[in-house]
Amino acid sequence: MNTFTNRVALVTGATSGIGRATAIAFAREGAKVVVSGRRESDGNHTVALIRKAGGEATFVKTDVTSEADVAALVAKTLSTYGRLDAAFNNAGVEGKPGPIHEQTVENYHHTMNANVLGVVLSLKHEIAAMLKHGGGAIVNNSSVAGLIGFPAWLFTRPASTPCSVSPSPPPSNTRRKASASNAVSPGGIETPMFDRFTGGAGTEAHAQIAAMHPIGRAGQPEEIAEAVLWLCSDKASFVTGQSLAVDGGWTAK
Questions:
Q1: Max CA pair span of the chain
Q2: What's the pTM value of the predicted model, to 2 decimals?
Q3: Rounded distance, CA 62 to CA 148, Å?
Q4: Which pLDDT value is given to residue 174?
């Protein structure tokens, strides 16, 4: 229950689903958590859930496609808690999937700005903040759709390429001596985004996609959160530049 005691974790897109579950998990393990997202009421609800469980959290309204917003988010993290040790870049959108010849430029920009540019901007400012204190760990949320092909589907969350950051001379008391970046690639997870994508629980599409996982079901947000926490912990100190499929066997079938 104290894996992240005295550490500060930032989660983008923490207003629901995987982001909310991960923010709650970080707090459960002792981290001070910065919750961010565009929906203020939902973000404050995440903070309330954390505080009710005895954790510490702050909400910062953020649109990750805006560099000014991302810079302000990281600055608020540092001014509130003094450091940044772990970040989960989870904010993203599902876009409008379909054959490429039916796609619009507007859908392309909407999806790529949120899912790619948003990660790049987050990395830029998070890394700078982490290196001030010797490093940290970053996990980007991707998707099995970035690892394997899906017929007639386009613009599901593309893979966010992990990047490894060169070490800088760290203070002697830091646990990590460099910044490490990895990605998780979830399969179908029971979230509001998954419901929007499939038409909701009880629909044929929802049942079909859930059944496509060899494990026999879709995943839960908390199962992705546990993978993120491991990648951000000292237990994964020699892991960087990897994309971990947490997909109920989807990519192994």
A1: 56
A2: 0.87
A3: 31
A4: 30
| C-alpha span between 5 and 27 (Å, rounded) | 9
Q: In what order do the strands lie in the sheet with 136-141?
A: 56-61, 32-37, 8-11, 86-89, 136-141, 179-186, 243-246
| Predicted confidence (pLDDT) per residue in 193-245, tens digit | 888 877 888 888 888 888 889 999 999 999 999 999 999 999 999 999 999 99
The helix (H) or strand (E) run that includes residue 240 is none
| pLDDT confidence band for 26 (50 / 70 / 90) | very high
Contact 14, 50 (CB under 8 A): no
Q: How confident is the model at residue 176, as a pLDDT?
A: 42
Q: If you search the block for the tokens 């546990």, which residue do you land on?
A: 226
Written as one letter, the residue type at 11 is V
Element spanning 123, H or E: helix 118-131
**C-alpha 118 chain-centroid distance:** 11
Rounded Cα distance between 149 and 240, Å, is 24
Rounded-to-integer distance, Cα 253 and Cα 251, Å:
6
What pLDDT shows up at residue 1? Answer: 67
- The CA angle 76-77-78, to the nearest 5 degrees, is 90
Taking the C-alpha atoms of residue 28 and residue 3, their distance in angstroms, rounded to an integer, is: 9
